[in-house]
Records
---
Amino acid sequence: MYILAISSSPRIYGNTDLLLEEVLRGLHETRESTSDRGGDDIEKIRLSGLEISPCTQCDFCRQEGCCALQDDMQDIYPKLTKADGLILASPIYFMAHCAQAKLLIDRCQALWSRRYILKQPIQDPGRPRRRGIFISVGATRGSKVFAGVKITMKWFFDALEVEYWGNLLFEGLDAKGSVRDHPTALEEAYQLGCRAAREWS
Ligand SMILES: Cc1cc2nc3c(=O)[nH]c(=O)nc-3n(C[C@H](O)[C@H](O)[C@H](O)COP(=O)(O)O)c2cc1C
């Protein structure tokens, strides 16, 4: 299996980044301990620092099924289409994804066009069903903190032909690394990774 983990926060070892690390640790350790499932390829990329331009809705992708903009996103597209498991981590900024994550999401309009306009599969042929996890953290508390990003993720994963398999959402965490003081968050992240390792085939 090839698992692509995308960390989008500009804070390296911030809250979402640490949660992502724990999910990957759970995934890796569980896979390694199951002899016939060892050897997975788990790749983590950080969006912060990459050059990813905003989608301009030039509609090139509606004809060609790929994006005309030549930047770091061109290296990410093949990883997105190859991934058997896709994990995106984003903090909440103004009740939405952070800009780094939203740039990537909008540029996946190219894959949406491939799937829904050109009627071409996203997934490489013969691969198992793709699964996705979304990780997010917000500083405030309230039932609506993650409402918007969850809707976005539903349609983002759908465009990529990925099943929206799991969420890891924590409110009330603001300071960098404060997730370490949360009573259960890192353990929940680790256990989610373990479960993914067992259930993703
Ligand atoms: C520009 C900006 C906007 C933010 N907007 C929100 C918000 O609307 N709601 C919220 O709960 N937290 C908001 N936050 C707080 C972050 O979501 C919070 O600090 C989170 O823990 C950051 O995660 P990270 O450490 O992974 O970057 C905002 C932070 C920044 C910098």
---
Amino acid sequence: MSAPSTAAAGRLAPSPSGRLHIGHARTFLVAWWRARSRQAKLTLRIEDLDAGRCSQEHIDGVLEDLEWLGLDWDGSWRLQSTGLDQMRAQAMDLAARGLAYACTCTRKEIAAAQSAPHGEEGPRYPGTCRGLYKDLDSARRSSGREPALRVLVPEGELHFVDQLHGTRAVNVQETCGDFPLLTRGGEPSYQLAVVVDDARDGVDEVVRGGDLLDVTARQIVLQRLLGYSTPRYAHVPLIVDAQGTRLAKRSAGLTLAELRARGVRPSQLVGAVARISGLPEAQEGRPHDFCAAFDLERIPAGPWWYDTDASSFRRPPYSPPEAWADVPE
Ligand SMILES: [Zn+2]
């Protein structure tokens, strides 16, 4: 990867499946500071593929919250769902090259065939349908089922560097299995969508939440198979609740809308995030005020929680387990 150039590009990629909470604010501020401080283009892509969970109301809410924080982006924002054809085309290209195959297994069959630990995408796929069908059509005909398309994940170890977590070594087949590219309904998977979109937007550095550290290997596998270059990565440590649990989408009292309703000012929140992001002490400010001093390498590791009474972040009231460096699946 060459030094920052006119082609440098980052992205903000919120999912409109709920209101943004304080953890999103932290991640998006860091991504914004990083892109702006290296003069990279910054795109906003709204990841709306999960049609059952995403809504227009939440899209409006995401835009409102980002603007309230004082974040901007270059060009028009875009819905991820506008790029489905290109994603499907890339998946079919992999299939035509023998790098993806039809799978007619049900979730139940996969679960029954595999007793290995289950990741957040369910059980690791054991490869049952590898080499079984010539293509999607023949799989459909001979099984009477609508097939999914899975990528043929190579054997071997993959190494990548995360700028905040160091070098990661992943046995890809053991960790990822042959993960889906297209669902049985023909919808692009999250991994495929992200990889195609990042390439399409020329993203050379991905700054996102630490909960996505574990899916990075899958995305790098896809980038290599599709002939894309791999961006640099930085996974921002998560914000947790007072008990040390990762914030969910519906974190009561911690959405930006709720904080705003309680009278929290954006400058207050930006100042609080700056203080836990390696930036010089300052009480309040707009995102731009912190740009010149921002340094990705100075972001402290480990989780924080937000004390709404004090309107500031604190370390969790326990010593975090080692696993916090590796966000659990
Ligand atoms: Zn199968």
